[in-house]
């Protein structure tokens, strides 16, 4: 009898030990997930926080474990921005019963919030937070490519139908010009020709955005390319009360890129002109608009940046910046940056942007380097 009780006791101890091992195993998995995990029990008390969630909150786990939501919102170590996000998550997932919610943090990263509750949770609320910025970027790139493909089909079907009559109209206006000048209507001719040329420029930009020609590559030193851009834009900058500063000293003269010079120059000129438009009277404390063009070597690539001290852009504008037809300029076509995106991608490079309202904008272009022997 005693031996049976002893065996039963040992079996119970093994079972308890096994359950504890399983529990420790799963807790260890939760601790090391790349997603933030937080668990509120049925009484609304925070019962579990994993390492990643502690990092996201910016406070030690011990300081928040056992807190209610109200106490969490009063925690001195959690920033005001994060507290506002916690309230929003609570409102969307608990109050409105949404099991999935997305938000963007102060650094522009995208997060997916998932709420799990119900009978299987026995009254507990499990919240997971995962960084989905890379997935969003992939999604945005796919969306961008779809738009560019659609743009190509549209442009191929209508470009010639528009350009041919414009060419004819321009020719007839030129023939009629002497008669109109005789009638004192030379100003009308000038305006008509200017508007026809503007329409042709828009069509050219439209065609380029859908399918830029294949790069006709030649070797050019990075510094030489940037110096040419500065020479082409400094007079316009001076007229707008803006200073362009070139900083390419970190890149050796022998460091060259194999690119279609015309296309890459078009991209950089477009970015500099956008910077000039963005400054447009918004100067720093010394009353001067500033554009800084710089280049630096990063491994086997060169990083070209164009920074300005203009008005900057909000997150909505940044999210749509490279989409065809998206523009914040009155009279703009919304094609310049989508063309630039395609050109840089065709050269095996990348183009990105960082901006903040009131703090200016920085565009970053990365292109592969080619070393030229001296």
From TrEMBL:
It catalyses: ATP + protein L-histidine = ADP + protein N-phospho-L-histidine. Residues 22-76 form the PAS domain. Its EC number is 2.7.13.3. Residues 157-371 form the Histidine kinase domain. The keyword Nucleotide-binding applies. InterPro entries: HATPase_C_sf, HATPase_dom, His_kinase_dom, HisK_dim/P_dom, HisK_dim/P_sf, PAS, PAS-like_dom_sf, Sig_transdc_His_kin-like_C. Keywords: ATP-binding, Kinase, Nucleotide-binding, Phosphoprotein, Transferase, Two-component regulatory system. Pfam families: HATPase_c (PF02518), HisKA (PF00512), PAS_7 (PF12860). The keyword Phosphoprotein applies. GO terms for molecular function: ATP binding; phosphorelay sensor kinase activity. NCBIfam families: sensory_box. This is histidine kinase. It comes from Paenibacillus lemnae.
């Amino acid at each position: 009898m005693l031996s049976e009780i002893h065996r039963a006791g040992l079996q119970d101890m093994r079972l308890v030990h096994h359950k504890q091992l399983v529990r420790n195993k799963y807790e260890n998995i939760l601790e090391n997930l790349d997603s933030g995990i937080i668990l509120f029990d049925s009484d609304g008390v925070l019962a579990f926080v994993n390492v990643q969630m502690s990092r996201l909150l910016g406070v030690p786990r011990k300081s928040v474990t056992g807190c209610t939501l109200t106490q969490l919102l009063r925690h001195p170590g959690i920033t005001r921005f994060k507290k506002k996000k916690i309230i929003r998550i609570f409102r969307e997932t608990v109050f409105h019963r949404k099991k999935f919610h997305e938000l963007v943090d102060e650094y522009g990263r995208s997060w997916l919030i998932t709420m799990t509750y119900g009978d299987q949770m026995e009254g507990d609320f499990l919240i997971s937070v995962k960084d989905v910025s890379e997935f969003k970027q992939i999604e945005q790139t796919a969306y961008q490519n779809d738009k560019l493909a659609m743009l190509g089909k549209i442009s191929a079907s209508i470009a010639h139908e528009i350009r041919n009559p414009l060419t004819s109209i321009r020719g007839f206006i030129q023939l009629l010009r002497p008669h109109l000048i005789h009638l004192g209507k030379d100003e009308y001719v000038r305006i008509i020709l200017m508007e026809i040329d503007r329409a042709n420029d828009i069509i050219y930009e439209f065609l380029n955005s859908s399918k830029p020609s294949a790069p006709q590559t030649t070797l050019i030193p990075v510094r030489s390319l940037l110096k040419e851009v500065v020479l082409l834009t400094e007079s316009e900058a001076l007229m707008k009360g803006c200073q362009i500063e070139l900083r390419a000293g970190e890149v050796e003269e022998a460091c060259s890129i194999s690119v279609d010079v015309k296309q890459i120059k078009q991209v950089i000129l477009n970015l500099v002109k956008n910077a000039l438009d963005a400054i447009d009277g918004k100067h720093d404390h010394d009353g001067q608009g500033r554009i800084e063009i710089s280049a630096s070597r990063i491994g086997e690539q060169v990083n070209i940046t164009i920074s300005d001290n203009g008005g900057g852009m909000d997150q909505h504008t940044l999210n749509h910046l490279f989409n065809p037809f998206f523009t914040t300029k009155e009279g703009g076509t919304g094609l310049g940056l989508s063309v630039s995106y395609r050109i840089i991608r065709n050269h095996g490079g990348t183009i990105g942007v960082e901006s903040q309202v009131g703090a200016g904008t920085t565009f970053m272009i990365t292109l592969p380097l080619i070393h030229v022997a001296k």
